[in-house]
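>> received
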Amino acid sequence: MAELLKGAGAAKALTETLRAEAEALRARGVTPTLAILRVGERDGDLAYERAARKRCEQCGVEARVTALPDGVTREALLQAIGALNGDPSVHGVLPLRPLPFDAEVCAALAPEKDVDGVTPASMAALYAGSDAGFAPCTAEACVTLLRHCGIALAGRRAAVIGRSLVIGKPAAMLLLRENATVTVAHSKTADLPALCREADILIVAAGKEGLVGADCVRPGQVVVDVGIHTAPDGTLRGDVRFDEAEPVVAAITPVPGGVGSVTTAVLCAHVLRAASGG
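>> returned
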């Protein structure tokens, strides 16, 4: 049976460190504060908002929500971003995406408050290998979880299945920083199973339920499943067919219980870094 790479341990360890950092900032008169920007009431947005607020409370970060209605105008949305940019008490802004006028809104966010790596400046810093700005939280959470579990990355062959700017591409950049040798693939890659089997570390973030099955894995692999989908019976499933992969590979993240809790802890880490001046 595979080792289960559960996120709870990594999230707990990071939360304890962050709580101490938050206390030190408060002692200096700085209250680390995250503003969550939400449009409408999509179930996924509300669930992530609840998880983020709970983690913020555990870490000593103040969380505020700016909620705008469905159908909000471009002008009102940009005005809300402008207000958060100009509020010195807000250190980080988390837009719950996709937003209306998404690209324009992300570009309008002040890079120093972009704690989820959505602005062009943040992405440029990531791809340039600069320490300026912040990587997208879920992508960073994948690497954080692997490190916490003692998974060696340097010199390993890694495959990232998914090419989005939210997870796939930034995860590849972060793995390169760790000196892994990285291949980026996707659902249209020719002979995807063969490519997957070549990897020592497989990160699956394609957004397609059950894309990766037994034909894509081999003994000795480490598999990180970032996908999350709600089945008709209400259970949560990933991009990996867990029942097929788990008996074969060396280690795998469960869904739920894997990357998600680490993502909110990374978010709080970014807010604290922003509050401390970078």
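>> The chain has a mean pLDDT of 96.
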